[in-house]
Write a structure and sequence with these properties.
The protein is about 55% helix and about 15% strand. The chain has 12 helices and 8 strands. Strands 3-2-1-4-5-6-7-8 form an 8-stranded mixed beta sheet, with helices on both faces. Strand 4, helix 4 and strand 5 form a beta-alpha-beta unit. The longest helix has 20 residues. The chain is elongated and about 70 Å long.
Length: about 270
């Protein structure tokens, strides 16, 4: 299997490194198209495969083409690679906001898979939601899912609109987690802990809570009740959270992210 990744940025490199480290493909089966000479030189030094600066016959030789460029760069890219696309190839897009129909139209091909990965894919702990055009076969979908699994977990959805929802939940989600971690760190510092101690307190607390959740069948609500005792410190904190409508405000923020994702996916 030969894979072409178009775009050598963070996510493009993440996929390349994941495929190589899990031995899904060898370096001789990995192609990367990167228009920036500086970035291309960096990629060559990283030994992630054969790096090209311009489209060529190698595009047609690839079994899978991964589009990892910025959405605004896609129309120009599509015009340069359209004539190299073979209709039997699977095109796998991780571009935010670019619909399957737009990719099909601009590339003149039908077999398109659209996905929304997130930043933890860099460490193999990613969460990716993906969908596909009806022309993609079941075997091809399984192949794509196996590739995604090299970067973490995956969920397939039939409704493409859920890709926008995934953008708001798992795509933006790491930033939400860091936001709450930062709040815990700042609170710890205000209480007298130094920077390193505060970061360790926050990190280990988040990690420990996730480990507890993963190793049981309890819901978040049940775990909250297990931590909280009547008249205790946790209850005092939650009384303030409820007073400030913290959860409601958080949900409102996530919905704002969804609205923006939908807005970005509309044709300009």
């Amino acid at each position: 299997m030969k894979i072409l990744i178009i775009g050598g940025g963070n996510m493009g490199q993440t996929f390349a490194r994941s495929f190589l480290s899990t031995h899904i493909v060898g370096a001789d089966q990995m192609f990367i198209l990167e228009k920036s000479p500086e970035k291309a030189k960096e990629l060559e030094g990283a030994n992630l495969g054969t790096v090209y600066g311009e489209p060529g016959a190698y595009v047609q030789q690839s079994d899978l083409i991964i589009l990892a460029v910025k959405p605004q760069d896609f129309p120009v890219l599509a015009a340069t690679i359209r004539n190299y696309i073979d209709k039997q190839q699977v095109v796998f897009s991780i571009m935010a906001g670019v619909k399957i129909s737009a990719i099909q139209e601009q590339l003149g091909t039908a077999k398109v898979v659209r996905a929304m990965p997130n930043l933890p894919a860099q460490t193999g702990s990613g969460m990716t939601v993906f969908t596909s055009a009806s022309e993609v076969t079941r075997i091809e979908l399984v192949t794509v899912q196996n590739l995604i699994n090299a970067t973490g977990k995956a969920i397939y959805v039939d409704d493409e609109a859920k890709i926008d929802a995934a953008t708001a939940i798992s795509g933006s989600g790491p930033a939400y987690v860091f936001y709450f971690m930062q709040g815990l760190i700042e609170a710890a510092q205000q209480m007298g802990f130094n920077q390193a101690e505060s970061e360790l307190l926050a990190y280990q607390t988040f990690k420990g809570a996730i480990d507890l959740f993963n190793k049981s069948d309890y819901s978040c609500e049940t775990w909250i009740k297990k931590v909280m005792s009547k008249g205790g410190t946790t209850e005092a904190a939650f009384q303030q959270f409820e007073k400030q409508q913290t959860k409601e405000g958080f949900i409102t923020g996530v919905n704002a992210a969804l609205e923006r994702a939908i807005e970005l996916s509309k044709p300009s």
